[in-house]
From TrEMBL:
The keyword DNA damage does not apply. GO terms for cellular component: cell outer membrane; pore complex. Belongs to the BexD/CtrA/VexA family. Pfam families: Poly_export, SLBB_2, Wza_C. It comes from Luteibacter pinisoli. It is found in: Cell outer membrane. It is a multi-pass membrane protein. Keywords: Cell outer membrane, Ion transport, Lipoprotein, Membrane, Palmitate, Polysaccharide transport, Porin, Signal, Sugar transport, Transmembrane, Transmembrane beta strand, Transport. GO terms for molecular function: polysaccharide transmembrane transporter activity; porin activity. This is Capsular biosynthesis protein. Its main location: membrane.
Amino acid sequence: MNTGELNDKESAAGARYQLVPITPKLIAMDKASATPAGLDPELTAYKPDDYHIGPGDSLYITVWEHPELTSPAGSQQQTAANGRLVRPDGTLFYPYVGQIKATGLTIEQLRVEISDRLTKYIAKPQVDISIVGFASQRVTMGGAFTNTSPQNITVAPLTLSQAVGAAGVNAQLADLSNVVLRRDNREYHLNLDALSHTLQGGQDVYLKGGDSIYLPYNDNHEVYVLGEVLRPQAISFKTTDLSLTQALGRSGGLNQTSSNGKAVYVIRGVENMEKAPASIFQLDNSSPAAFAVAAQFAVKPGDVIYVGPAGITRWNRFISQLLPLSGLINNAATAQYNLDRDSQL
């Protein structure tokens, strides 16, 4: 047996791992058993209704043909200067109307309420209301976004994809496979990468005030490439998975002078070896057909990819380790010879 390879006898003896060849049949079985990406029905069931006014919102109230009510700060001022701020208690003040409870009302409901109260002073008042500042309903953003500023819910519904797009994803640090949406004391874990490759990718999630979106960092989303590759390293990735070909490619590929093409292993489950045997997937990379198989085999976070050395490499390393020892022995023998010779003189 080549010293760079494993065999079934080793597996049976230690009972710590099982050796599984990477074949087209294995890849087909993995794809068949994979859970399709999907959205929680509770998320897709939510549909936003008309916007409801809340504390912190600023309203611009127009009463046609009555500029003294519409623009009390003067028509030359910006629209925001003539806005009516909804106070923390949910009320606002308007001339001739007085204090009015605005929180929880839609724009149309508040328009009707103000119109009814103004009829005591103005014949058939024509009232229009627009929101010039949204502040009562926000979605907080956190994690590996380039912009984590809160995003306001407005009269136009805000979707998850819009919020993520506006926040910007840090392509080097983000992990798109486990985005966390917190709503009403519950967490929803979303695989945005997988959803984008399915039919459900076009089905978006509407957000509502109080939602929180966290995009995790990919510092724990790594595979480790060791052995006879040009650049052994830990590789972070932001997507659902990474193919074996991609992982080896990022490491510079196999070392052509020292690697064993039949000894490419993917070691999975080493953290739970005390409870269950680890799986060691072996790829025979000695034929061109292996490249097509490796391109379809997905590695997972925590996997260790190991490329074993060729037989001649192991022999050369053994010789190189002996050389320092042989030098010491030779030096010791020479020294002893010189001592013996000097004693005879």
